[in-house]
Specification:
The protein is α/β, with parallel strands linked by helices. It is built from 14 helices and 17 strands. It folds into 3 domains: 224 residues, P-loop containing nucleotide triphosphate hydrolases (Rossmann fold, 3-Layer(aba) Sandwich), CATH 3.40.50.300; 57 residues, Alpha-Beta Plaits, CATH 3.30.70; 63 residues, no CATH class. Helix 5 links the parallel strand 6 and strand 7. Helix 2 crosses helix 3 and helix 9 packs across helix 12.
């Protein structure tokens, strides 16, 4: 195994960010870590990167303690950490040299990667001249410029437009096919679904689901099929309900009826079938069902609030789990609290359609807020001139500066035309920002 984590615990005062978390990552796999904000994903990654030390438990990377393999590991953090006054190429060369890459080789590889992400024309420009999305692509390149064996990518697609999201997704898949081991943490579950071999779903620092994505999706597959025919649909045995949608028929099967039996009945009745498929279940729906059921079993309300807090992911069989239908489930909170042998159950039955809509809306809202990021969020009907105004505000001050860019004022545009508001550096800076924007 490339990564082995056993019974990890990390506390911040009375908050348990990571709670007895165990998982493994195999060589050459693309491993997804999922969870709401605050689930413990980033904390877990930082433990594997030797940035944080666990309070309990152990972790190894490439068979060694994390601190001994830093030159063989790449890390794309969720926060920006670029030196704004350095040139793009100089930044990459400097970071590669810190990882032991010889200068001429570092420049050659940096230019090749910049060309790959379409930033080669900006090589001699300063980082601060790049847009937010361009800086995100640059930071991705910075995380792999030394050609690491293992890559930790924390929200790699945030701030990217759909075109560049697709390009970066293709690049990540290309690295995976080249044999790199990649740990991907993201709220964009459609991308996790398209890229990852296995996943770990985390809530409140604990693992809810862990295993091959295909097996997890099979376990949660609804008992229904979708059929498209040239004509109508006759009465079929074992079908409890029929709903017509977009020129196809969604058939809800009675308990105990298998899709193959329905297909056989259609053929026997001479129905000309154009399409027949078991209805797929999106990963987002699985996430919603798993989290809401875990909260129900823990005896709690506040589902929407907790969904807005955190999810995390990884995959592999480890001690303290049990197996059901090929999917591994960690022992639940109540099992550790004194119910020996109990485990978190994730039955497809879960909450009703109204509950699911509420939960999905909560997840989507949180995802959108998370993707906005930045120290300030600006809601303007017309974004023209926004970047220039922000740069002029930087020159006036109003931040703590620093290489990590914590003091920079960053803006995202939402065409709803809502009033802007300040966050992070305080109301005074928010007022300064609005005055500079003429609000």
């Amino acid at each position: 195994m490339i990564i082995q984590a056993h019974e990890l615990v990390k506390r911040y005062d009375d908050v348990v960010a990571v709670d007895r978390l165990s998982f493994e990552v195999e060589r050459g796999e693309l491993f997804g870590m999922l969870g709401p904000n605050g689930a413990g994903k980033t904390t877990t990654i930082r433990i594997m990167m030797d940035i944080l030390q666990p309070d309990e438990g152990s972790v190894s990377v490439l068979g060694e303690p994390p601190g001994q393999v830093k030159d063989r590991v790449g890390y794309l953090p969720e926060e920006r950490g670029l030196y704004h006054d350095l040139k793009v190429l100089d930044t990459l060369v400097y970071l590669a040299e810190l990882k032991g890459v010889e200068r001429s080789r570092a420049r050659e590889r940096a230019m090749a990667l910049l060309e790959r992400v379409r930033l080669d024309d900006w090589a001699e420009r300063k980082v601060k001249d790049l847009s937010r999305g361009m800086q995100q692509r640059l930071q991705f390149v910075a995380s792999i410029v030394h050609d690491p064996q293992v890559m930790f990518l924390d929200e790699p697609f945030q701030g990217l437009d759909p075109v560049n999201t697709e390009r970066l997704k293709g690049f990540v898949d290309e690295l995976h096919r080249a044999g790199k081991t990649i740990i991907l943490s993201s709220h964009q579950m459609n991308l996790v679904e398209a890229l990852c071999d296995r996943i770990l779903l985390i809530n409140q620092g604990r693992a809810l689901l862990y295993g091959p994505l295909a097996e997890i999706k099979q376990r949660y597959a609804p008992n229904s099929v979708r059929v498209r025919t040239l004509d109508g649909l006759p009465d079929l045995p074992g079908v409890a309900a029929v709903e017509e949608s977009d020129g196809a028929f969604n058939l809800t099967l009675a308990e105990g009826t298998r899709p193959q039996e329905v297909l056989r009945a259609l053929v026997e009745r001479g129905v000309e079938i154009r399409a027949f498929e078991v209805a797929p279940v999106p990963l987002e729906d699985i996430f919603v069902d798993a989290v809401s059921e875990e909260q129900q079993e823990a005896g709690g309300g506040g589902k929407s609030d907790e969904l807005a807090q955190g999810l995390d992911g990884s995959a592999t069989r480890v001690p303290g789990q049990r197996q059901a239908d090929g999917v591994h489930h960690h022992d639940g909170h109540r099992a550790r609290a004194g119910a020996p042998g109990a485990a978190v159950r994730h039955a497809p039955g879960g909450p009703g359609p109204t509950d699911r809509r509420v939960y999905r809306a909560a997840v989507r809202d949180r995802q959108q807020a998370h993707r906005r990021g930045g120290r300030f969020r600006l809601f303007l009907p017309h974004p023209a001139g926004l970047s220039g105004r922000l740069r002029s505000l930087r020159k006036r001050g109003g931040g703590d500066g620093g290489a990590q860019g914590r003091g920079d004022l960053e803006g995202d545009v939402d065409r709803r035309g809502l009033p802007g508001h300040g966050r992070g550096n305080g109301a005074e800076h928010g007022q300064q920002l609005r005055r500079g924007l003429g609000q």
